[in-house]
TrEMBL record, chain A:
Class of enzymatic activity (EC top level): translocase
Annotated source species: Kribbella pratensis
Catalytic activity: a polar amino acid(out) + ATP + H2O = a polar amino acid(in) + ADP + phosphate + H(+)
Enzyme Commission number(s) from the entry: 7.4.2.1
PANTHER family reported for this sequence: AMINO ACID IMPORT ATP-BINDING PROTEIN (PTHR43166), PHOSPHONATES IMPORT ATP-BINDING PROTEIN PHNC (PTHR43166:SF4)
Protein family membership: Belongs to the ABC transporter superfamily.
ABC transporter domain: residues covered: 4-248
Superkingdom, natural source: Bacteria
GO molecular-function terms, A-Z: ATP binding; ATP hydrolysis activity; ATPase-coupled polar amino acid-transporter activity
Name used for this protein in its record: ABC-type polar-amino-acid transporter
Keywords, ordered alphabetically: ATP-binding, Nucleotide-binding, Transport
TrEMBL record, chain B:
PANTHER family in alphabetical order: L-CYSTINE TRANSPORT SYSTEM PERMEASE PROTEIN TCYL (PTHR30614:SF0), MEMBRANE COMPONENT OF AMINO ACID ABC TRANSPORTER (PTHR30614)
Name of the protein in its database record: Polar amino acid transport system permease protein
Family, per entry: Belongs to the binding-protein-dependent transport system permease family.
UniProt organism field: Kribbella pratensis
Domain ABC transmembrane type-1 positions: 74-294
Gene3D superfamilies to which the protein is assigned, alphabetical: MetI-like
TM segment ranges: 32-51, 72-94, 124-146, 170-190, 275-297
């Protein structure tokens, strides 16, 4: 069984069906990029994986565990909040707007969940946090508050914060969309390294070059369905579907004539 | 670009390149008139304070130094303020969390509580608290609810009460005052805390949830510390208002209270005005201390916000940068 196994996932907001039966399998160590126009449901799908949104239909398994429900003899029982929180511990998430805790320093942000949720000792949590900060190139900024960091630095701290829980899976929700163009590269570099280290990643992004170079699989979504999926050289290099082609050419023309 | 800047510095003036600005500032004659008026008024006030016999400063300070007055200030004013604010802030945060919960019963209870206690004037509430003992003439007992009915049905005798308090001792004096002021304050604090919680970006709770925090932890570790930034300034106001509202304790009645004690001295010696001055001085001093406390609280909960780097935030060994 793949690490992430999603079957026929549906989700509506007030009678507006945002996901219309999404299937997705992600093997351990794979990097999957979700592409698609805004409103295609890719962010919603990402949030469904770690139960920030509850799904209306279908099933999502992460590491053989059914997300959000217990299946007893074919009958589904909604999990308690505590059990859902436990499932989320295995899944790291990085947000478009960073969402660092502004009242804590970079180091405190990273130490918070391991000490509060996993009850790790302050010492071990701090040591690992410093290693992670070093890995994202911000060891010298460990005592800075988020407001004192640039957007790119904040997002790198946010990645370190998610990694501190030692997740099996990392979800990235447009991690570079809120950044100034010159700061995008430093965040993508950290993500690239993470992929090389074998982290399983699902990335919602508009960064075509990142998808082309790093992704094992590219999934193109539109209108709440998966239009096309496959290796980047096929989906980006030689798209079969007209909607994929239209989206890619629109993206390309934006890049050439900003 | 940098070579250009060294050849002609921006301060080097020439006919076609204006240099540093050395303009005549706007004159403010109005300000000088205002200063003169204020200085004269201040001198008149000072003269009034020092020369007017009605102030009777010796009597003022003697009255302030009486043991019952000092006790009234410490117990009736300071202690009651602290205790009622503890009930008020704690209760208010609980009420705000209830009001914002998905559970309609909790939200409804919180709404009704706030509605009820905001509707009653504090003076009348305190008067009522002093008379509540009449409702519980058998005392307030802890045990099985409706035990006499159940015992009756089962055909048994006796009671299932473990501990009984005398209601007339609870609803009297300072205890009644603290309960009344605390409940009333909780209703106001509930709205302040609710505004504070709602001011926190929902992305904060989401990020905390995504890290696997329980909802209680999300509230305690992430949302409330940030809400405090919005909650503290109006709470400072509330505390100062509470300090002054302790003078309403007279309605319970509580006689171990600052102003009551001062008044009794005043009526003994037929000096009412110096008594008002003495009370004013006490309240001025206490409010000043509270304002200093509020400053430090605001600084603590404002950390990480604004542009000023807090002392702890300087990175180690970044001397040259």
């Amino acid at each position: 069984m793949p690490l992430v196994h999603a079957v026929n996932v549906t989700k509506s907001f007030h009678h507006n069906e945002v996901l219309k039966g999404i299937d997705l399998d992600v093997d351990a160590g794979q990097v999957v990029c979700l592409l698609g126009p805004s409103g295609s449901g890719k962010t919603t799908f990402l949030r469904c994986i770690n139960q920030l949104e509850t799904i209306d239909g279908g099933r999502i398994w992460v590491d053989d565990e059914l997300m959000g429900y217990a299946d007893r003899d074919g009958k589904l029982y909604r999990l308690k909040n505590k059990e859902i929180a436990a499932q989320r511990r295995e899944i790291g998430m990085v947000f478009q707007r960073f969402n660092l805790f502004p009242h804590m320093t970079a180091l405190e942000n990273i130490v918070e969940a391991p000490t509060q949720v996993k009850r790790e000792s302050k010492k071990t949590a701090r040591e690992r946090a410093m290693k992670l900060l070093d890995r994202v190139g911000l060891a010298d900024r460990c005592n800075a508050y988020p407001a004192q960091l640039s957007g790119g630095q904040q997002q790198r701290v946010a990645i370190a914060r998610a990694l501190a829980m030692q997740p099996k899976l990392m979800l990235f929700d447009e991690p570079t969309s809120a950044l100034d163009p010159e700061l995008v590269g430093e965040v993508l570099a950290v993500m690239r390294e993470l992929a090389l280290d074998g982290m399983t990643m699902i990335v919602v992004t508009h960064e075509m070059s990142f998808a082309r170079e790093v992704a094992d699989t590219v999934v193109f979504m539109d209108g709440g369905v998966v239009v096309e999926a496959g290796p980047p050289k096929d989906v980006i290099g030689n798209p079969q579907h007209s909607r994929t082609r239209a989206f890619l050419s629109r993206l390309r023309s934006e890049h050439e004539h900003p | 670009m940098s070579t250009d800047a060294t050849e002609t510095r921006p301060t080097d003036a020439s006919p076609d390149r204006p240099g540093a600005i050395n303009a005549v500032p706007v004159r403010h004659p109005g300000r000088w008139i205002a200063i003169a008026v204020i200085v004269i008024l201040a001198a008149m006030l000072l003269h009034l304070l020092l020369s007017n016999k009605a102030f009777d400063w010796r009597f003022v300070f003697q009255a302030m130094n009486q043991q019952p007055v000092i006790n009234g200030f410490i117990k009736g004013t300071l202690l009651v303020t602290v205790l009622s604010m503890i009930i008020g802030v704690g209760g208010g945060v609980v009420l705000a969390v209830m009001r914002l919960s998905d559970n309609p019963i909790l939200a409804g209870v919180s709404w009704v509580f706030t509605w009820f206690f905001r509707s009653i004037p504090r003076y009348i509430l305190l008067f009522t608290m002093g008379t509540l003992g009449i409702l519980f003439q058998q005392g307030i007992a802890f045990g099985v609810p409706f035990d006499w009915k159940i015992i009756d049905w089962l055909g048994l005798s006796g009671d299932w009460r473990f501990y009984t308090l005398d209601a007339n001792q609870i609803f009297t004096g300072i205890v009644a005052g603290v309960i009344g002021l605390g409940l009333s304050e909780a209703a106001y604090m509930a709205e302040i805390a609710r505004a504070g919680i709602m001011s926190v970006d929902p992305g904060q709770a989401e990020a905390a949830e995504a890290l696997g925090m329980s909802s209680g932890k999300v509230m305690r570790r992430v949302v409330l510390p940030q809400a405090m930034r919005v909650i503290v300034p109006p709470t400072g106001n509330e505390t100062i208002a509470m300090l002054k509202d302790t003078s309403l304790l007279l309605a319970v009645p509580v006689i171990g209270e600052l102003f009551y004690q001062l008044q009794s001295i005043g009526s003994t010696y037929y000096k009412t005005f110096p008594i008002a001055v003495a009370a004013t001085l006490y309240y001025l001093a206490a409010t000043s201390v509270l304002m200093v406390g509020q400053y430090f609280l605001e600084r603590h909960f404002g950390r990480g916000f604004g542009t000023k780097a807090p002392r702890a935030a300087r990175p180690a060994g970044a001397g040259g940068a």
